[in-house]
Structure prediction request, 336 residues.
Amino acid sequence: MTDTKPEELQPETPETEAKDDRNARSRQMLGMKGADVKETSVWKIRLQLMKPITWIPLIWGVLCGAASSGGFTWTFENVAVSLACMLMSGPLLAGYTQTMNDYYDREIDAINEPYRPIPSGAISLPQVQAQVWILLLGGLGVSYLLDLWAGHSFPILLALAIGGSFVSYIYSAPPLKLKKNGWLGNYALGASYIALPWWAGHALFGQLNWTLVILTLFYSLSGLGIAIVNDFKSVEGDRALGLDSLPVMFGVKQASWICVLMIDVFQALMAAYLISIHQNLYATILILFIIPQITFQDMYFLRDPIKNDVKYQASAQPFLVLGMLVTGIALGHSVI
Prediction:
């Protein structure tokens, strides 16, 4: 019988080192935490500032809004317009938000993530400022063109883009800097990632109304739970600079429970609403999505939210976003 070393004790080889480097670079380009790789390409640095990983929920929100409108059909024109709306919500306006957030968070990042582009000196502040303006104006321009396509008498998509951009600004920038308050800041972030793109997709193909606005703002309370996940690895810097994130206010353990309960409870309440409008099949599907979500929350996040945050997001959050689409389809089949 031959003794073998566990895989984690095997010496590094050039192949494994190259693979680890590729993985780290990919994580860095997506804007994920914990990837300390020196990058010299200015375009890759600009992409890193835009955090592509954060575009996904906004792109998905547009899809949910198109579904809830009841007016989307699978034509080439509608698909093309939907993609333009996703471009506006994700790469342009979410990219603007993330770049601006890094600009105003450069002192915190110097403590938590000193390898990020701005604190590491990989990109200058004037270059970052120019990127913020280009992305913002690009997003507003696309929103106006979408209003023209939809024939809106009032430019609702442009108004949503301006409103969302303003919320993004006061979330990151002084003197308001909403992120200093764990509850208000995280809800603003959750609503921006769920309600705003949902409204955009709905308004593009249907008539935006107060019932949908209130429902999606309510659903955004589950998004507050998602937003909290990003605060656990920043506790040290947030505490040093006086930012009252929920992990700072309540401690890591209690904040992790707040996080998962916000997600699960408000999804369950949305399922109850679907039952009330006689969309029982979709309500059942939504409830079934919550069950594996709770399982992964217990397996990963509640046991160690700092170490297991990526595993948790990869395993549990797909059930949340699928539940959003189920809800959108259900609303599209009912009169709201």
About this structure: The CA atoms of residues 181 and 244 lie 5 Å apart. Confidence is low (pLDDT under 50) at residues 1-9. Residues 76-104 form the longest helix (29 residues).
